[in-house]
Amino acid sequence: MSPLKDNSIFSWTYELVADTLGGPEWLAYGLGALAVIMVVVNGFLLIGTIFTWMERKVVGRFQSRVGPNRVGPFGILQAVADAVKLLFQEDIVPRRADRLLFNAAPIVMLAPSLLALAVIPFGAGSYVADLNIGVLYVVAMSGIASLAVLIAGYASGNKLALLGSMRAVAMLLSYEIPLVMALLGITILAGSMSMVDIIAAQSVPFVLVSPLGALIFLIAMSAELNRPPFDVTEAESELVAGYLTEYSGMKFGVFYLAEFSNVVLAGALFAILFLDGWEWAILPSHLWFLIKVFGFLFVASWVRATLPRMRIDQILTFAWKYLFPLSLVNVLALAVETIAWPDPSGLQLWIMVAINWAIAAAAIPLLSLVVHLGEPARAGRRIPLSEEVF
Amino acid sequence: MYGIGILKGLMVTAKNLVRKPVTIQYPEERVPQASRFRGQEFVWYVDRCTGCASCAKFCPLGIIRIETDPNGGNEQDGGTYRVDVFDIDQGRCMYCGMCVEACPYDALHMGSNFEAAQYRRQDLVINVEVLKAREKHPSTWYRPQLEREKFDPFEGESKEWQDAGREKPFWHPQRPEMLPDEGDTRPTADGEYK
Fold it and tell me: Does the ipTM exceed 0.95?
């Protein structure tokens, strides 16, 4: 059968249905699989919902405010209040909108992040499927999100929404490459694309072995997620709300939830690929995984509270001229090291750590000497009269 | 080098994280107000008002409407006008306080309230009945006699006109016998400060 058989939720439901109903095997199997899906999806969305509250609270504290504190203790029911408000909001479809695509976009946005959950191991032995191309699968799923953004911007029939989604697609396509390169380094190190194998391969967490990879992953991921400082797609001061401009009610809510769920998914990926997944001592594995994910979410909120928005040309310059060469350096270093020591022992692994940190410390300042993020602003620059257009 | 500025910025926000929030949660907590705060809820002492309408004349927006009745009495003998209408349109008032400065008998004071929001604009117009019936919590703005007794309009009971005090007329070189009060900060006849 499938890897589901190892899953305790599945086997419990399977046996319950098989014993009490005694129906055909496909029924027990289907219900068991459904139970697993329900637990995983709802648990994931619950964490995403908690993150919407947590981010508002944390960003508030970073800005020396209190954050939501009206609904429930510490405002923890804020997400519920928001959802109720969105449910009762009028659902407006603009006259110039492409109705089918306009309604489809939120689904296309949320579905991939739920699909990607299939290969995420949440704890020792608790995953839906241990796909042997897990990393590739997750990258493919996260690629669909950019399509959803394009659909939403195009179907809104609004120039600001279209501008936002054009920016988004340019940015997402550019940052996909450093992201995949960073994941390629991890795959070379682990010798596998399966999430479980990658966790098993981390006798030293990969954030130490591949610091450049971790940095590139963090930067490229925050661009993929449209989070500051890469939030040009919904730049409030320029584009109203980008591709979200025309959305209201629960459609907006689904977008909002999908955005935050994607951050949680990115946190899970970072925990698995760079922080040794659920493996650690003393505490139960699921708890360790949650702690690591929330650590990532905290850092993400911190960055959001701190960094100002970059210009779109700066973002693309940064991706192509800086991150892309850096990711090549990273992959090259890891590949050479893996050829030298195909199966590194403890000491060799620590030598690799030292070499990679040295490479990172050298490559980041050296590249930054070469690359400039667009034209620096010059004070008092004036267009000569002859160039003025009348 | 890339990254150093980002780390500095992250440290700035991290310092805010460990600090106490500066938020004052308004309905539960309040910012301490200055006693000279020029607020809504004008304080008007009917027993002091002569109905001269100086306030209405000095109002730069012309939002004070005042109508008086001679009341059958003789003003020369100390009889006062009865104020029939005294409307102040607080919806247009900018709280400059010139009406209070203009009042020759210290009958009108600025108020200390700032929570008199209304659903309808016309409800912001206060009339003579409201002004008469209101609790008196005068601001100490342009009222040195209140300031001298360290009056706090945000505490204590209603300040009636007998207790509100009255500032003496200005000292004038041609009337040197009118010496300033104890604690008066205005210059003496020699042009020196006490």
Answer: no
